[in-house]
Amino acid sequence: MRWVLVGLLFFPFMLYSQDLDTSVDFSGQFFFSYERIFEDEGVNNEFTIQRGYITFRKRLTRMAQIRFTQDVSIDQEGDGKGNIELRLKYALLKLNFDDYGFLTSPYAEIGVVHRPWIDFEQKINDYRSQESMFLDQNGLVSSADFGVTFASLIGGEIDETFQQDIQSSYPGRYGSLSVGIYNGGGYNSLEENNNKLLEGRLTIRPLPDHIPGFQTSIFGSYGKGNIPESPDFEMISTALSYESFQFTTVFQGFTGTGDASGNFVTNNFQPIDLKGWSHFIEIRPIKSIPIKLINRFDEIVNTDTNLWTSRQAVGGIAYRFPNSSKIILNVRRNWMKIDGKVEDINRLEIITEIRF
Length: 356
Prior knowledge:
Blueprint: H1 2-10, E1 25-37, E2 45-59, E3 64-74, E4 84-96, E5 103-114, H2 116-124, H3 134-137, E6 144-154, H4 160-166, E7 175-182, E8 197-204, E9 214-224, E10 232-243, E11 247-257, E12 273-283, E13 291-302, E14 307-320, E15 326-338, E16 341-355
Antiparallel strand pairs: 1-2, 1-16, 2-3, 3-4, 4-5, 5-6, 6-7, 7-8, 8-9, 9-10, 10-11, 11-12, 12-13, 13-14, 14-15, 15-16
Protein name: Porin
InterPro entries: Porin_dom_sf
Organism: Rhodohalobacter sulfatireducens
């Protein structure tokens, strides 16, 4: 909120208009689920709300608009354990600029904003209701944070027919880019040190006329882990993605030292060298029926020992409604190494994702 107010003060020339729109856009997204865990857990049979998002958007002028997104979840600890709680996921001022050279529809966000990679990945892997994205789930980077983001499409927009079939939010003809500076711990963490995190993503669509769905991306982070000891955090990641009406996939890999949350450290707070990869695939086997087969596999390896530390396999069958709401029959298995021993947890989930 503080960043939004600063933005309003610093850009007063953008906050007037002869035709001020008084309407407020409202939308929502909720993930309800039934979960059955097959191991001997304390609670292994539960109906729950996994997550919910309520978003308000208000256009101030042609160039300026604001967005507030409330994050609905169940409190898992403390005095309020079990309560449904609201947090701010996004609270930002968005400034839209005119095209400049090869930059198409450039804009800046100020406040609690999107960070470069997770926002892009979720436009391709539209199954956040199954699980958060690979790097976000493992605490390496967050989807939102306090800071400033600049983003743009590259070289105009891709063919409108392709956009309608894929419904991509990054329809740059030759790709897109995003860079920013952030606190580093994410929107749901306090700032634990005075360091800031630099992040950037560059995505190239090399063959827009022949293979419009194919993109290649490079993403990087540089800064410190968000704990008082401030361990180093450096990461470089690459990804290949392909989108079409019947087939979508993302393959990504990373290598780095430490993480944004400060979790991957030794007992004396030295950062751990890591590498990892993730593969997501969605297939529509019958063109006339909106049923999708989905699968994802993740792995993180401690390169200091050359041993994996966590693995995850997620698979399911999804029925998609025209507005992208879904019903998913989901199976998930997680492997973890604790004190040198391998433990695994198996889950069966029925997930209902509601969008409006």
